[in-house]
Design goal:
This protein is an alpha/beta fold. It has helices at about 15-30, 75-80, 105, 115-125, 135-140, 145-160, 160-170, 180-190; strands at about 5-10, 35-40, 50-55, 70-75, 95, 130. A six-stranded mixed beta sheet has the order 2-3-1-4-5-6, sandwiched between helices.
Length: about 190
C-alpha cells in the first residue's frame, strides 16, 4: 500500500490513541511519511474519539475529509455509523466491533440505541468486517485488548508483513500487558 487513509473511531477509554500510535510506528518502519491527528470530544467521559492516520510517500495533512478514508476501524457500532460518510465510496473498508456502548442520551432515557447498525453499514458498504472484538479480547485475557484485536484484523488487509506489526506492538504496548496484546493481535489477524 503506497498510500493509506485510516480513521480510528470509538469512545474514550477504548484504546484508540494507542492503536493510532501502533499504526504510526508501522508506517515509520515501512519508511512512509506518516501524519497522525487526534480529535476527541469528551474522551475522558466516554465521548466520541476520532484519530486520523495517513501514510504515503509524502503526506501534507493528517486530516481525512468525507469520502477519503480507505479504512475505518470502528471500536463501537454507533461510532461506526456516525463516521460512515468518511469512508471512500466503492473501495472503502469498514472493520467494526459489534460492541455497543450507550451514550448519555440513551443512559438517561432521552434516546434509544439504534437497531441493526451493522446490517445498515453492510447494506451501504459491502466491504465490511464485523466481529465481537470484546469477546475475543476477553478470551485472550484482557477486555481492554479490543484495540489490538481490531489492529490484527486491519493488519491482515494491508499486505504489510506481520512481523512489522508485532515489532511495533512490542515497542508501544507496556511490557506488563504485552503477552495478552500479542495474543489479541494473533486472534484478530486470524479472524
Amino acid at each position: 500500500m503506497d498510500k493509506l487513509n485510516i480513521m480510528i473511531v470509538g469512545v474514550g477509554g477504548q484504546g484508540t490513541l494507542l492503536a493510532s500510535r501502533v499504526l504510526g510506528t508501522v508506517a515509520l518502519k515501512k519508511s512512509y511519511d506518516v501524519k497522525v491527528s487526534e480529535v476527541h470530544g469528551m474522551a475522558q467521559r466516554g465521548g466520541s474519539v476520532v484519530t486520523y492516520v495517513k501514510w504515503g510517500e509524502k503526506v501534507f495533512s493528517p486530516i481525512i475529509e468525507k469520502g477519503e478514508a480507505d479504512i475505518i476501524l470502528a471500536f463501537e457500532q454507533l461510532e461506526a455509523i456516525r463516521w460512515l460518510q468518511y469512508l471512500k465510496p466503492g473501495s472503502g473498508k469498514m472493520i467494526v466491533s459489534s460492541q455497543k456502548i450507550n451514550p448519555m442520551p440513551v443512559i438517561t432515557g432521552k434516546a434509544k440505541y439504534p437497531d441493526n447498525i451493522i446490517g445498515k453499514i453492510k447494506e451501504a458498504y459491502g466491504n465490511t468486517i464485523s466481529l465481537d472484538a470484546l469477546e475475543i479480547a476477553k478470551s485472550c485475557g484482557n477486555m481492554k485488548a479490543i484495540n489490538i484485536v481490531l489492529l490484527g484484523v486491519l493488519a491482515k488487509s494491508t499486505g504489510i508483513e506481520k512481523e512489522i506489526w508485532i515489532e511495533s506492538i512490542k515497542e508501544i504496548v507496556p511490557q506488563k500487558v504485552l503477552d495478552v496484546n500479542l495474543r489479541a493481535f494473533e486472534a484478530g489477524y486470524n479472524v
